[in-house]
Design brief:
GO terms for molecular function: sulfur carrier activity; sulfurtransferase activity. The protein is of the alpha/beta class and 128 residues long. It has a single domain, classed as Hypothetical Protein Ychn, Chain: A. The protein is 36% helix and 20% strand. The protein has 5 helices and 5 strands. The protein has helices spanning 16-29, 60-69, 78-83, 89-94, 111-120, and strands spanning 2-7, 33-39, 74-77, 106-109, 123-127. A 5-stranded parallel sheet has the order 4-3-2-1-5, with helices on both faces. Helix 1 runs parallel beside helix 2 (60-69). It is globular and about 45 Å long.
């Protein structure tokens, strides 16, 4: 089975992001495919490279990056990201900003990639 995972909530609001990560890990370990993980609304904050969780808190960013290292595509909605200050090199130049704030393993993309899940994934699962 091929899944598209949508993450809409910020990293610090509840346990849904951790649940999404566990679902992805178990799916991959069971032989399923992950078409992509699409971060939208406040979910784009998962790709913020300046996160610094306390030593006693779970490091969501490093876990997303570990999934990226396994070949999972991590996509941030470009409009939602720009609105919230998450910029890659190209967008920083476009908006004349000096900081690149998108973490390693994440890419900015449009809603076309989100909509692709309706035809190239067997199931779309959303975590809020």
């Amino acid at each position: 089975m091929k899944f598209q995972i949508n993450v809409y909530g910020a990293p610090w609001t509840g346990n849904s992001a951790r649940s999404a990560q566990q679902f992805i890990q178990h799916s991959l370990d069971s032989g399923h495919d992950i078409a992509r993980v699409f971060f939208f609304f406040d979910g784009v904050y998962h790709g913020l490279n300046t996160q610094s969780p306390a030593s006693d808190e779970f490091d969501l960013l490093s876990q997303w990056q570990a999934l990226s290292d396994r070949g999972v595509e991590l996509l941030l909605c470009i409009a939602a990201s720009a609105n919230r200050g998450l910029l890659d090199d190209a967008e920083a130049k476009r908006y004349d900003k000096s900081a690149i704030t998108v973490a390693r393993g994440f890419s900015l993309t449009g809603l076309g990639q989100w909509a692709s899940g309706f035809h190239d994934a067997d199931r779309l699962i959303t975590f809020k």
